[in-house]
Specification:
alpha/beta; Rossmann fold; SIR2/SIRT2 'Small Domain'; 6-stranded parallel beta sheet; NAD-dependent protein deacetylase sirtuin-3, mitochondrial; Sirtuin_cat_small_dom_sf; NAD; metal-binding; metal ion binding
Length: about 425
Amino acid sequence: MNRSRSCVVRPPIARVTRSAKSQAAHPKPTEIQDSEEGLYGKHKKIQMDSTPAADLCHMSVETQDIFITSKASDSSGDPLPACQTSGSKADRGSPSSRGVKSSSPHDLLSVARLVKLGRCKNVVVVAGAGISTASGIPDFRTPGTGLYSNLEKYNVPYPEAIFNIDYFSDNPQPFFSLAKVLYPGSHRPNYIHYFIRMLHHKGLLLRMYTQNIDGLEKLCGIPDDKLVEAHGSFATASCHLCYTPYPAEEARYAIMHDRVPTCSFCAATVKPDVVFFGEDLPRKYFLHRKDFPKADLLIIMGTSLKIEPFASLINSVRSTVPRLLLNRNAVGPFERIPLRRGDHMELGDLADSVRKFAELLGWDGEIQELMGSQEVESPMLLSSPSSQSRLPFQNGVPSDHESCEETSRAASSRVSSSNEETDSETDSKSSA
């Protein structure tokens, strides 16, 4: 008797691409806690008193458990409106006007105590463009000063189109014009970058996940194995169609001279390996599958949490893991009332918040010393006169004038040396 073999049809594996979808489509953290039983066990919601989140609650019970929400109403007696999106003008007001819990001085102190007690040994950092604004690089979404607010001269139909792979295929020139400004080389790491470097120096940094493409994390000394550049970088280049590698310096030279680099294999346009909307994320991004379940502290800084799937990473840690938001505005799950148990935030200027956190940890002096030593030992190549003579490019443009001067000096030295040798030979013959 013939037995028929049953086939199990498995759903296809979905590609993970960069998108600008809002987090409204994602489940709330409470729904995730109720539904996630396979990864952390059926008793995930039971939190023991020995967890870091429970310790934080005991440390700052005065500021975490006293929320008066039943009487939250405006002068007319109507309930307060729901939290607005973090891109609107209301976000730049006070935290209380947005219906979110304002930051408390006990938040930073409580997390600092955990770190000093040795309870946080696998720290994961999630960072966005806000950590580089102190270096002079604008972020993307701040109204008025953000990059998306100043793209009129590039003639794009909408701001995100300049990083859209389909739009780039039709018209790469707007991105190449912007790339001249975004190319690394003219900015230095700031105090925030060195704070993350100090986490690594103390042996506490498990991994840093960054949305930035400026390369300042590597420049300040964070090792490559501790860094995940989720949205790529300018360090390499390839064809956007067939992905054939292309020399990064040649691509930079062409872009700086208003030329479009083309692939030698398929003749399509070459671009730096920056992840556009609609493109696959790098393989290294998927380290989050083992990093976030292992983390015992999550620090979120300088991000609007608007870009998926990067924005959903912060919901991948266990419910007992404390999360600290260092940001100008409350974003994502930190806009909700009440906050999740163990969630803390320090709102305001990011550089000031990070410095305050470092002072509570007792690291401020070490960070200052590290910044000074890094400036001396590893100066930027483009700012070093001795290194400029060795580089074929200066700010992406060949230093033709300097090379001509060096060639003429070398030629004159060779002529003078040959003349000296001829004179010495004549003198020796005459003396003989």
